[in-house]
Amino acid sequence: MPLVTPLSPDHDKETKELAEFFNETLGFCPNSVLTMQRRPAISKAFINLNKAVMANEGRVTSALKRMIAWVSSNATGCRYCQAHAIRAAERYGAEQEQLDNIWEYKTHPAFSDAERAALDFSLAATLVPNNVDEKIKTELYKYWDEGEIVEMLGVISLFGYLNRWNDSMGTSIEDGAVESGNQYLGKHGWEKGKHI
């Protein structure tokens, strides 16, 4: 049961208009946004930040950004965000082999060394205490420029917020996210947990 009940998508007109962004990303407006709109300034600021972070300005693809989000969410244990991230990765064209083997990104041949560097950065930056060190930096700089690293850390930081929000709220997970979670993550024990 959620800590706070999501409001109707029609509750705040500006949030509803901004939230159309999620129809492309996920195919629905997330319940997390519908909860945030109890304070519309928060929902609007969040959506605008999400749009800015997920904009592609370098070589970090939309699919890779969502896989970075998945690694971060997996590290924190937020099942809601794990399912959303893998669903969005699928919708943004992640290769089937990557979706099927995201748990093994460190060794699976479907992932390039550049992608591994980005995903290792996501894991290191998500951990508490933080594990970004000289080795992570060296690997990142082999493949990515500083603007692309900023984009990646934007995703990691955005999902840090979302992981805290959704696990604390016990946000009810949407059917489409459950479907993607079961399809790609279920074989490794993913379940919706408290996000009923």
Automatic annotation (TrEMBL):
In this chain the Carboxymuconolactone decarboxylase-like domain maps to 40-120
Q: Which Gene3D superfamilies match?
A: AhpD-like
Superkingdom of origin: Bacteria
Q: Name one Pfam family in it.
A: CMD
PANTHER family tied to this protein: CARBOXYMUCONOLACTONE DECARBOXYLASE-LIKE DOMAIN-CONTAINING PROTEIN, SI:CH211-175M2.5
Protein's name according to its UniProt entry: Carboxymuconolactone decarboxylase family protein
What taxonomic ancestry is recorded?
Bacteria, Pseudomonadati, Bacteroidota, Flavobacteriia, Flavobacteriales
